[in-house]
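Predict the 3D structure for this chain.
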Amino acid sequence: MSGITTSGGGASGGGTSGRATTAKVPVTVVGGGLAGMTAALTIRQLGLPVRLLEAGAELGGQATARTINGRTEDHGVHIIPAWYRSTLELVDELGIGDRLAETDNFYQLLPGEFPHFRSYGALFSFADFVKDIRSGVTPPADRLLFYYGLIDLLSQRYDRRDQSLREFLRSRWYLTRPAIDDIEHLFVASSAAEPDVASAASFRGSIAGFSSDPGRVLMPRADLEQTLIGPFRRRLEADGVEVRTGVELVGATVADGRLATLTLRDAALPDGERTVTEEVTGHVVLAVPHGVLTGLGPDVTSALRPKYGAEELRSRPLGALHLHLRRRLPGMPDEHVRLVGSPHAITLLDVGQVWEGHTTTVLNCVVGRTARLADLSDDEAVKVIVAELMTYIPALSWDDIEHVCYQPHFDTPFYAPAPGSDRHRPENSTSLPNLHLAGDFCAAPPGIAGMEGAVRSGRAAAESVRRALRPTMPVIPVQDIGTVDPRSARAAKYALAPLAVGVRFLAARANRRRARTTTPGVTRRP
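Done. Predicted structure below.
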């Protein structure tokens, strides 16, 4: 292996001159992730001059791809489900649909079964459902209970209450251990949050989204810089948005009921002159992580709706490990793979088969439980993850690995709603008439976060600006995700309850039989 590359933080600057200037642009968007980019584009379409400031060297935030040691490395593995309505609307607006490919299957790999992958697809038909039940990833009875558990979750009303996903699962009398493990792994691999600190209401929302919009899942044909962020930036600049990178927000003040100043650190300025305090004469959209928002102090967070709500939100790292191999690894599918029972909740994609220009295998892995590796050095963490991969893919060896890029993302964690967090998520407008918010942590229907949450909130922030500066122009529509009426799910739950009782009995008997055959010293009865 030639080397390990790890990722660090964003741009930094020096100097504390406190030089004062005045911002003359009507709207400044601070934060160049998907939320800020969407807000800037949509506000510019109102005919307003817009300035977009990003602390890092590139736009995109958690949807970016960066050049690390001469290689383009995505922040992680990205998919766009059919229920990501705002994201798909943006894809159409940017004209980049041809840069995305439809995913027909997902694959699951059990230890000791390589190169036999068990495939399953979206449930478009009863035949797809039967195929999944018979896939053998978990015994059929346990898999049926898995689906009954999802129906039960959809039947819950979380209007005024919430609970952890684990609390919900452990309270269901019919769920077996394999069925619970299946649901928990499905959640951890996509959200980085452990079930005991994850919102059941949020998981219900995402399952409802998949259920109401069961279309094909899309994945990029190249890294996100080529697929999304590069075209997006070119569109912004073509539309007249002023884009500046390397400009970090380090402070803000409030006076006379308005956002009064922004303190910025500009990496492009000479040492000793990098810190500039600007008087705010127009409007500002803060599209920064909730941790940066709360770091601005109580004068800003008290203006949120609800007050100080962002201080109650939490994010968790969702790690990425990219393995560049010297050869094409035989037997690997070209779509997403879930490693069943993976201690670190690993899912992966061989982008070497998907992205143009690759002749060898490139494994892009998402590490859902990267927080478990926080006490290890990067080299030690890589060894743990690769050793785990080798237990699933014995054809993989250290000699195959030409290059490793490990991105634990401890400095850029992923927002994952905790139980009850929806009531703390701030609205896009604030009590300061010239301050607006965007970000995947902003108020949204349960289940919306990540890429869809970012894009949706960018449009919602632009609508807040429209109400203030262009009230006579048409309302900017903000897409909601599809949902499932709890009453319909409850009717299905009760109708299927007798079947669930019978399946639970069969699952328990089968699990006891398997336990007897795998326990040393226990002989099966004839």
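The first helix runs from residue 34 to 44.
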